[in-house]
């Protein structure tokens, strides 16, 4: 990420970041929709549920190659960049950056835990709050050191991820007696329920749970997922922290903010995707040839993809800077969706759980994989249609305003006219 400088980032909103964030908030639904609509193992393994032939296999393959992990990675890069921007804005405004950051992270943790417990167990906000607290003291590192530390954390993440396929291999190959084999079979079935082909009983149990009422789902979610933020911090923390630090470096180097010449973006896109896409395609072919067996799935979805995912993320940044022309209708719609990413992310949880869970339309488990994507397109259109008109009247999305007001300990001006009047009054 060849750095022209380590200069302080100007405390201003960068529309280029909002455009990329808008793509990320739309793109992440391509993966999350599986978590909303199908039993959990289907997220990693299409053979678990929802179909793995024909159009269903194609839907899985496109997501595996282009979107799975990459949209989450884009969010993490952008979150790291926002740490720099908000700290600089706080300092420019005469406020304490440390207090501003940790107050924001504390409230984000509250939002994340509420989202996790009340709406959906796939929450990422609480995880970002915890990792963001760790990332903040590292923001002053020189750009080169941010890159080096980020890459070392990617290697550390691969080592953590490798524990899962190592456990699978050990269980499959080490059982010297009948009792040991039975114990191993039980642990293997537990892993199959997450990464492989769950038992019929596990599938039936999950279908019954999510086709039920709100209170039973709530009780089960709290019992099964209440400690998710801590578990995620251990398992995904190194990778997320790596991406936040690389996001800081990307902003400083000009990559993320759109400061590079177009030819440089083209060159980096060719280099990054020229290596990463064939690697992902080879992994996808291996998974299909193996029939999505447990060991290949855990290897491909965890440590092996972690090696090349950063290249895919950087390639996405380059592609979006090349493809989205500032001022175009699509770019402005995406920028508005990105500026309201917090609201739009939580809105998709509310919409999708209402569509698929039993207390809503009750469609959980009733669609094959490819049939979920017309619903994704409908949600995309809603986000793109409502975000820009809202921001024409208001300074923030509804939840962005609430988060900002709570973090600052005072109600913030919401309407643009109210903000203009308060600015005039303060002069």
From TrEMBL:
Q: Which PANTHER family match?
A: INNER MEMBRANE PROTEIN
Q: Does the keyword Membrane apply?
A: yes
Limits of the DUF418 domain: 252-409
Cite the entry's keywords alphabetically: Membrane, Transmembrane, Transmembrane helix
Q: Which domain of life is it from?
A: Bacteria
The record, for Pfam families, names:
DUF418
Q: What is this protein called?
A: DUF418 domain-containing protein
The UniProt transmembrane annotation reads 20-43, 49-67, 74-93, 105-134, 146-168, 241-260, 272-295, 307-324, 345-364, 370-387
């Amino acid at each position: 990420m060849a750095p022209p400088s380590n200069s302080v980032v100007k405390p201003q909103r960068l529309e280029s970041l909002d455009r990329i964030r808008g793509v990320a908030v739309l793109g992440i639904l391509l993966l999350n929709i599986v978590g909303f609509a199908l039993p959990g193992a289907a997220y990693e393994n299409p053979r678990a549920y929802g179909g793995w032939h024909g159009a269903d296999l194609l839907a899985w393959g496109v997501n595996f190659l282009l979107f799975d992990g990459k949209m989450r990675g884009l969010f993490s890069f952008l979150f790291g960049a926002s740490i720099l921007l908000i700290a600089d804005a706080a300092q420019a405004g005469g406020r304490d950056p440390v207090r501003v950051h940790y107050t924001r992270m504390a409230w984000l943790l509250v939002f994340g835990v509420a989202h996790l417990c009340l709406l959906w167990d796939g929450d990422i906000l609480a995880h970002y709050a915890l990792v963001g607290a760790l990332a903040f003291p590292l923001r002053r590192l020189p750009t080169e050191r941010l890159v080096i530390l980020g890459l070392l954390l990617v290697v550390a993440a691969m080592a953590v991820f490798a524990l899962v396929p190592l456990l699978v291999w050990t269980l499959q190959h080490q059982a010297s007696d009948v009792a040991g084999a039975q114990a191993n079979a039980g642990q293997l079935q537990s892993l199959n329920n997450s990464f492989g082909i769950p038992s019929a009983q596990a599938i039936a149990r999950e279908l019954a749970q999510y086709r039920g009422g709100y209170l039973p789902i709530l009780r089960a979610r709290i019992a099964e997922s209440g400690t998710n933020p801590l578990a995620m911090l251990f398992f995904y923390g190194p990778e997320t922290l790596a991406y936040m630090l690389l996001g800081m470096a990307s902003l400083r180097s000009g990559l993320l903010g759109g400061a590079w010449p177009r030819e440089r973006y083209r060159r980096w896109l060719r280099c990054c995707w020229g290596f990463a896409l064939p690697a992902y395609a080879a992994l996808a072919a291996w998974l299909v040839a193996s029939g999505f067996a447990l060991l290949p799935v855990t290897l491909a979805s965890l440590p092996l993809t972690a090696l090349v995912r950063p290249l895919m993320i950087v390639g996405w940044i380059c592609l979006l800077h090349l493809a989205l022309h500032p001022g175009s209708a699509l770019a402005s719609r995406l920028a508005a969706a990105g500026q309201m990413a917090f609201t739009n992310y939580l809105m998709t949880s509310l919409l999708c759980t209402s569509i698929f869970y039993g207390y809503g339309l009750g469609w959980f488990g009733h669609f094959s994989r490819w049939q979920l994507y017309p619903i994704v397109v409908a949600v995309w259109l809603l986000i793109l249609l409502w975000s820009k008109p809202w921001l024409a009247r208001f300074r923030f999305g509804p939840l962005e305003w609430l988060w900002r007001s709570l973090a600052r300990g005072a109600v913030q001006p919401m309407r643009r006219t109210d903000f203009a009047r308060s600015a005039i009054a303060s002069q």
